From TrEMBL:
<feature type="domain" description="Enoyl reductase (ER)">
    <location>
        <begin position="18"/>
        <end position="333"/>
    </location>
</feature>
<dbReference type="GO" id="GO:0005829">
    <property type="term" value="C:cytosol"/>
</dbReference>
<dbReference type="GO" id="GO:0035925">
    <property type="term" value="F:mRNA 3'-UTR AU-rich region binding"/>
</dbReference>
<dbReference type="GO" id="GO:0070402">
    <property type="term" value="F:NADPH binding"/>
</dbReference>
<dbReference type="GO" id="GO:0008270">
    <property type="term" value="F:zinc ion binding"/>
</dbReference>
<protein>
    <recommendedName>
        <fullName>Probable quinone oxidoreductase</fullName>
    </recommendedName>
</protein>
<keyword id="KW-0521">NADP</keyword>
<keyword id="KW-0560">Oxidoreductase</keyword>
<dbReference type="GO" id="GO:0003960">
    <property type="term" value="F:quinone reductase (NADPH) activity"/>
</dbReference>
Amino acid sequence: STPDLPKVQTAIKYNENGPPSVLHLSTTEPVPTPSPHQVLIKNTFAGLNYIDTYFRTGLYPTPSFPFIPGKEAEGHIISVGSSVPASYNLSPGDRVVYTTANGTYAQYTAADALHVYKVPAGIPEGHAAATLLQGLTAITLVRESADVKKGDWVLIHAAAGGVGVWLVQYLSQKVDARVIATASTQKKLDLAKSLGAEVVVNYVSDDYIKTVKAVTNGAGVRVVLDSVGAKTFDGALEVVARKGTVVSFGNSSGKVPPVEIARLAPKNVKLLRPQLFAYIATREEFETYADELFKWVLEGSVKVFIHKVYPIEEAELSHVDIESRGTVGKLLVKIPQ
Ligand code: NDP
C-alpha cells in the first residue's frame, strides 16, 4: 500500500444514461485498488473522446452504474502492479499517458499496464492526452485498415474533429495522399485546408457526393474514412472507387443500420468496421505506433490541436460542446490535484 494515498477522490460519474446533465461531480468516490497487471495513476488531464458520449447516452451499453467515464488521460504513476513486465519500463513517478476501458474523469485510475506509455520529455502538459487515442486511431486506420499509398484519393469526414485533424495531417503531409475533407463549418474547412487537404467541402450545406465525383473525374476515391456513420454510409458506397475501401469507424450521427453485403458487389468494395483496441492488442503494436506518433509530435511535423481545457466542474459542458459540432481538435478535462 502507498502511504499518503487518500481513500476517496473527486470524479465525474453518472447513475443513468441520458443527456450531458446526467454527469455529476462527486468528491467521495473510492480510490481504485489496482490488480497485479495494472498501474495506479494520478491523473492531470483526461482526454475527451466521442465514444464517451456513446456510453453516456447508452448507444454503447454502460458496463455498470455508477459509471466514471473516460478512456484516456495523462498523469503520474503512483504504483506498479507485481505482474507488470519489466520490459514495459514503468516506474512510480513516471509521467505517462494511457488508454483504458473507462474511469479517467477522476483523480486516480487503475489502468492495464499494457496501454500505459511513458511520455517522452518535451511534450507539453495536456498534449499527451490530446495525442494518444485519436492519433493512434489515425495511424492504425491509415496503415492497417486502408493501407493508403502516395497519390491515393481519400475522403475524410469530420476532418476538423479530434481524429480528423490527425488523419488530414498524416495523410496529406506524410503519406502524400490526395485528401478531400468534409466538415460542417467554413472555419473547420479552412483548418483542414491549412493542414494539407487538397479539396474541402461543407457536407451540410453542399453536395459533397457531386464534388467527390467531379474532383476524381467520376472514378471516386480509393478510400473513405467515415466516422459520421448513419448519415454518410450510403454516400460512402456511392463515392468509393471500384476496388476501393470504405472504413466505417464511428457513429457521430448514429449507428449504421445492418448492411446487405451484396451492395459491395458492383464495385468490388472492401468494407471495414474497425476499432482501435483490436489494432493495439499487443504491447509491441501499442508501443510501435505510440513511438511513431510521439516522434512526430516532438519534431513538430504533426501539430496538436486543443479546442479547450474544461475544469472538471464543467465536464457536462464539454459533452454539450462536442455533441454540438462546434469543436475543433481535442477537448481536455483538467483534473484537480
Ligand atoms: P470529434 O472531435 O471528431 O467530434 C465528432 C465530430 O463529428 C463533430 O465535430 C462533427 O464534425 C461530426 N459530426 C457529424 N455529424 C454529427 C452529429 N450528428 N452530431 C455530432 N457530431 C457530428 O470526435 P472524436 O475525434 O473523438 O471521434 C471522431 C469519430 O471517430 C467518432 O465517430 C468516434 O466514435 C470515432 N472513433 C472511432 C474509433 C475506433 O476505434 N473505431 C476511435 C476513435 C474515434 P462536423 O461539425 O465537421 O460535422
